[in-house]
Amino acid sequence: MAVRSLLHYALEVPDQSLGQRYYQDFGLVDESGRGAAVRLRPARQSRESVQLYEGPRKRLHHLCFGATGEDFARTREAVRRSGGPEIDPPRGASGEGFWFRDPDGNLVNVREESAPGAPTDPPPPLNGPGYAPRQAVRGAPERGLKPAPRRLGHVLLFTSDIARQVDFYTRVLGLKLSDRSQEIIAFMRCTTDHHNLALLASTAPGFHHASFEVGGVDEIALSAAAMADRGWQPGWGLGRHVIGSNFFYYIRDPWGSFAEYFYDLDHIPESCAWEPRNFPPEDALYVWGPPVPADFAENKEA
């Protein structure tokens, strides 16, 4: 029993057209068509990763996970046994799969659907001390490299009760705890990524950021520069996390949260006997990078 993929996340936002422009500048492709939601996808994938619904203020609309066959049926039964009733889909949303609320009241949709295929890049030929796989070829990227996220990796939500949320998502939806840092933050996975859902302590629920994989550190930096050229405000980066190990750069969205470019995340095979570690507070955010902005962990929805 387990969900097997994070298919998309959806936000309510006060200005859908502004959100559409932000995510298109970030590198996603508009796939809206008809319907209540603006839909955006990575260029090399066929389904949307982001949905934007109209609302009075920014907040999470729902999370969507995928499971198939017995995993789908058993997950549905586990949700029923947990005491959380299935509910009708919200107005304008798809009736696919089933809908319910997690203990924080967040809407969750589980669909009988597999994850879209993950784009594959060739391994980067990086030269270093005593090895030079790149020979007689210049390594610097083109200056005009455009942002091109490959796929959605994870979402980070605020919560006032990390333990309760971790219990629900591991016990009911079958996610696995990857790592945590005290009562500050917890990371869970439903794929071979180190994390697909993270939870950050706050006084109330809220949406902090979503993260998209790109092809290298150069691409992170050039994408961040391209976003700045388009007038979007930097959030935090370039740096490297301790938990998950990925390089990162966060760009502020129009509503006080973030979207993140990431590269080189820890990979945990399903058969791996991975032991979650409880990291000290100084490792909760990063091992190197610029100082953390004062409002980075502020829940502006609280």
Round the Cα radius of gyration to an integer and report it.
Answer: 19 Å
Number of domains: 1
State the shape.
Answer: globular
The CATH topology comes to: 2,3-Dihydroxybiphenyl 1,2-Dioxygenase, domain 1
State the distance separating the first and last CA atoms: 33 Å
Molecular structure report:
The mean pLDDT is 96. The chain has a 9-stranded mixed beta sheet, with helices on one face. The protein is α/β, with parallel strands linked by helices. The chain has a single domain, classed as Roll (2,3-Dihydroxybiphenyl 1,2-Dioxygenase, domain 1), CATH 3.10.180.10. The two termini are 33 Å apart. It has helices at 16-26, 69-81, 162-171, 217-229; strands at residues 5-13, 29-30, 38-41, 50-54, 59-67, 98-101, 107-112, 151-159, 176-181, 185-189, 197-201, 206-213, 234-240, 247-252, 258-263, 277-278.
